[in-house]
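Structure, all two chains, one model.
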Amino acid sequence: MTEPLLRVRDLRTYFVTERGAGTARAVDGVSFDIFPGETLGIVGESGCGKTVTSLSILRLIPEPPGHIRPGSFIEFEGRNLLTLAPKELRAIRGNKIAMIFQEPMTSLNPVFSVGDQIAEAAIVHQGLSRKAARARASEMLKLVGIPDPEERVDHYPHQLSGGMRQRVMIAMALVCHPQLLIADEPTTALDVTIQAQILELLDRLQAELGMAVMLITHDLGVVAGTVDRVVVMYAGQVVEAAPTKGLFARPAHPYTEGLMAAVPRLDAPRARLHAIPGQVPAATAWPAGCRFHPRCPFAWEKCRVEEPPLFDTGVPGHAARCWLVTEPARRTAKA
Amino acid sequence: MSAPPPLVEVTNLVKHYPGERGLFGLGPPRGVIRAVDGVSFTIGAGETLGLVGESGCGKSTVGRTILRLVEPTAGQVGFDGRDVFALTGPELRGLRRKMQIVFQDPYSSLNPRMTVRQTLREPLQIHRLASGDDANRRVSALLEEVGLDAAFADSYPHELSGGQRQRVGIARALSVEPAFLVCDEPVSALDVSVQAQVLNLLADLREKRRLTYLFIAHDLAVVKHVADRVAVMYLGKIVELAPAPVLYDAPRHPYTRSLLSAVPVPNPTAQRQRIVLQGDVPSPANPPPGCPFHPRCPHPKKSERCRSEVPALREVAPRQLAACHYAELPM
């Protein structure tokens, strides 16, 4: 079997909250692998820890108030990213692992031309001359489908539409041909027709450049159409991990199941939506036992007191953090 | 039997904003931004009309102009037989009691310095509907109706989650017992699991209070779940208007078709033909001549006519209106 490109083990990223209200355990023991060339989707609602996970990989967590707990481990090319010296880390960040963010307007610098911003990484990481880097920048703009790249290279972010800005972000991220692209909600701020363009672009670039993509999203539709494997997060933990088809065909965790039933669908007749009762708990006070138990229709005594581990469901590559895996009869009894 | 007269009747509504000013904002405005450019529709009593489109298409401006939160440039809006744009002073205030709005962002539409009770009591006082203990009883009843514990009355907005705030926003709109609600992206700031709760709440309230909704949203799947009829806007104009089942099953305008095909469906085995539109939405300050959609239109029959002649919104099938010269031809 191929070796994973990135191996995350027992990642714990905590934040000290204001006014000493406690410690927010935003990411609380997360483990997963990303293999070369694959697309992994990280799915979950606000506050589940998906963005903090991605920021932790690149060590972009502001310290304080945040800190990654000892014992956490993120392996890339045989080295633990969490213990690298700043200089070694900089050689990886933006070079071998790149990231794009949700808000292209706030992640681009308004006072530099887009060409300068794309060229920067090529100058820093690959030692290109200014002239060569500029040529590379317009090449990249062409690659991401921006018309008139030679002219656009001198434009500033405010002169571009939202979709164009996201293309520029992608060009910046890919200028050094990274092995892993972390895309955090790359299409959430975009309209649906522009979202379709960007997803198609990411798909094409991945095939052309052979990189792995970690796609963070709250949108199950985007996941279904784009990724090979899915990790579902809830309350700072991985609650389910599976190949995409298997996850949608047979979700094993009641949260995943509830999420799928809550989405209004274009491909189904109008019906009352299934709502998950309650709301995501606060990261300073995760419920005891299974963190989903207060909202779970199947919860019983054991769920309230004992935290379930991530069980193998018996289907290859499909795991779920739920006691139902060990007592499937309880699911059918309820249904 | 004839249909009941519509509750809301919008005729040729136009809203233009002055264009950008030169000389660091001191010069004269350059041209106009055609945010809403001749929109007509009706909403029957008890009906939900979905108004969909991408950012900048003018859908929110339509909603706000109907309520006169924004003054129109031209056109007419009738509400229950009265001319909304002709009313002033106390008459207008009286009408506003009947027409309310739920905003997208429950974070910025609630006053952070007012408790939930103060927020809900204010409209009761302005419209002289209740005061004192009576007002407090109404606050508790409203909270209960939107699924919140009466104990939330003394909370401030920052103490509530997004879903709870949106319930307060709905309670505020309902406090004056309106007949008509403009819901402007009421669930787009909410997470999926909470979004479903709020959509179900809006459906229950409509049933219970016999409300009429103008439901404005960019999410076509959400609109499918709430709307009886759907209007699709593009660059300030309605390009298609039809009963929801018709619009979703057999869209006729190439823009509607593209929009529907672009919505990701949570089914990895779905076989769908996706139409990926090229380019961006043009600026409403400088809309293309002829059909506003022609520069991005994927219709194989697109012709010179589309570039020069604005297509009228016409009936292309029973109860289905589309503004396309070639709406009857397959794509």
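The interface with chain A takes residues 54-55, 161-164, 191-197, 199-200, 203, 218-222, 224-225, 244, 248, 258-260, 262-270, 274, 276-278, 280-281 of chain B (CB under 8 Å).
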